[in-house]
Design brief:
Elements: E1 5-9, H1 16-32, E2 37-41, H2 47-54, E3 59-63, H3 80-83, E4 89-92, H4 95-101, H5 105-117, E5 121-126, H6 130-134, H7 138-149, E6 160-163, H8 177-194, H9 197-202, E7 204-208, H10 216-220, E8 227-230, H11 237-255
Parallel strand pairs: 1-2, 1-8, 2-3, 3-4, 4-5, 5-6, 6-7, 7-8
Length: 257
């Protein structure tokens, strides 16, 4: 079975002091939960502080973005080489990066390649907007984003994919478990088309978009859904711990059946 995966994307929230406080509120309880890969993705400014706090624990660290060059005159950017000393994962292609900062599939593809070349594990985000969803173009959009985002990328077990329908991110309007599972199953078919069925079965694919402790069970109870990329709920210690704990319990129950 694929190891369940829960990542918390803090986005542009928390000062360094607040990040340290949030980690201190959840680290012990998260560390006790087995059977789930747990990842925290704070803002860049808190990576060093959180890295120090997580050492010796089972909790992994991730960044929220990076540039595709390793060094150079790119004022304000963070390179994969800088991140590789601090964290294991990096979120790439999030819809907010695409929408607000003009990231294209080509840019995302270059970032994925740069991450893998520098020992970082990419969490590649894909997902359709509301208009595309209502027009029945979900599969068309997702197929384009996955194929373009992974163009020229060698098969890798380090890749994680997150299906995040844009209309569900931060809106409180999550997709249904069945909707998410159907699309994630389709993404797995795309990976099989791009690489092969064996690799596709090994890659973990998450759901993201208004995930909470109240609805996580609806998603992870589906065998196709390997976990979640959690936004706002990851900023609440008890909420995030509950999401991870429920995931562990549900996946453990399924594996024992």
């Amino acid at each position: 079975m694929r190891t369940p995966f829960i990542a918390g994307n803090w986005k542009m929230n928390t000062t360094v002091t607040e990040a340290e406080q949030l980690v201190s509120e959840m680290i012990e309880k998260l560390d006790e939960i087995e059977g789930v890969e747990k990842v925290i993705c704070p803002p860049f400014v808190s990576l060093i502080a959180v890295n120090m706090m997580l050492r010796g624990s089972s909790i992994k660290l991730g960044a929220q973005n990076m540039y595709f060059e390793t060094a150079g005159a790119y004022t304000g950017e963070i390179s994969p080489l800088m991140l590789s000393e601090l964290c294991e994962f990096v979120i790439l292609g999030h819809s907010e990066r695409r929408r607000y900062f003009g990231e294209t599939d080509e840019i995302v593809n270059r970032k994925v390649k740069a991450a893998l070349a520098n020992r970082l594990k990419p969490i590649l985000c894909v997902g359709e907007g509301l208009a595309d969803n209502e027009a029945g173009k979900t599969k068309e959009v997702v197929h384009t984003q996955v194929m373009a985002g992974l163009q020229g990328v060698q098969p890798s077990h380090d890749l994680v994919v997150a299906y995040e329908p844009v209309w569900a991110i931060g809106t409180g309007k999550a997709a249904s478990g069945k909707q998410a599972a159907d699309t994630i199953g389709f993404i797995r078919d795309i990976l099989a088309e791009l690489w092969n069925r064996t690799i596709a079965q090994d890659v973990r694919i998450l759901y993201g978009g208004s995930v909470t402790s109240a609805n996580i069970a609806e998603f992870v109870s589906h065998p196709e859904i390997d976990g979640a990329l959690v936004g706002g709920a990851s900023l609440k210690a008890k909420e995030f711990v509950s999401i991870v704990k429920q995931t562990a319990e549900i996946k453990e129950k399924r594996s024992s059946q």
